[in-house]
Specification:
By secondary structure, the chain is an alpha/beta fold. It is built from 6 helices and 8 strands. Its EC number is 3.1.1.45.
């Protein structure tokens, strides 16, 4: 696998992890990081997507604060650092960086042209914003945080979007989940899957709330969704 450099809209440059399929080419998937940076979990997701035939790109979204963040959820110090980065993250600039990354992904010779976005936690929130603000061919959000505060943008969703919601998500209370599901129900291109009894980050391999059955179910739904909408 490789590291590529992307030029932001404002001229800055940042790195992204690139995983290519064995076939040499395929549709693109923009993988959007959690609050732990482009770490082993994100790189493995890219590698798994490459094994399914996709060109997977995961950009460093914290490059404006501290380039090269690669931490875990295994210590208090790392968790404190992750939440501090999340707290100071410029979301508007981050979405612009993702839009630049999506364009760079499509421009890669390995990419067949169609490309979607898929994110987790912070990345799940940003995947929702990619569905409202970008021309991504489809988007997948895993337990996105704060989407209930973004529902004013929902009318801009015209392409397929899949949301995975953990019903016991400690960061997304039941009332917020109800608001999201009610608004999404009116949008024909949106599919919402809820996972009873599961907490935030249930699909993060090795995480405290990892649930193998839930992760397998969600990932299977995602695989079918991507195949349908990206080819």
């Amino acid at each position: 696998m490789a590291t590529v450099t992307i030029t932001a809209a404002d001229g800055g440059r940042f790195n992204a992890y690139l995983a290519r399929p064995a076939s040499g080419s395929g549709p693109g998937v923009l993988v959007i990081q959690e609050i732990f940076g482009v770490n082993a979990v994100m790189r493995q997701i890219c590698d798994d997507l490459a094994a399914q035939g996709y060109v997977a790109l995961c950009p460093d979204l914290f490059w404006r604060q501290e380039p090269g963040i690669d931490i875990t959820d295994k210590s208090k110090a790392e968790m404190d650092k992750a939440f501090a980065l999340f707290g100071s993250f410029n979301e508007t600039a981050g979405v612009e960086d993702l839009i630049a990354s999506l364009a760079a992904l499509r421009d890669l010779p390995e990419c067949s042209g169609r490309a979607g976005a898929m994110g987790y936690c912070l990345g799940g929130r940003l995947a929702f914003l990619m569905a409202t603000r970008s021309d991504a061919d489809c988007a997948v959000s895993y337990y996105g945080v704060g989407i209930d505060k973004l529902l004013g943008e929902a009318s801009a969703i015209t392409r397929p979007l899949m949301l995975h919601i953990a019903e016991q998500d400690q960061f997304v209370p039941p009332e917020a989940q109800a608001q999201i599901r009610a608004r999404m129900a009116s949008l024909p291109t949106v599919t919402v899957h809820a996972y009873p009894g599961l907490d935030h980050a249930f699909a993060r391999v090795g995480g405290d709330h990892y649930d193998a059955a839930g992760a397998t179910l969600a990932n299977g739904r995602t695989a079918a969704f991507l195949k349908t909408h990206l080819g």
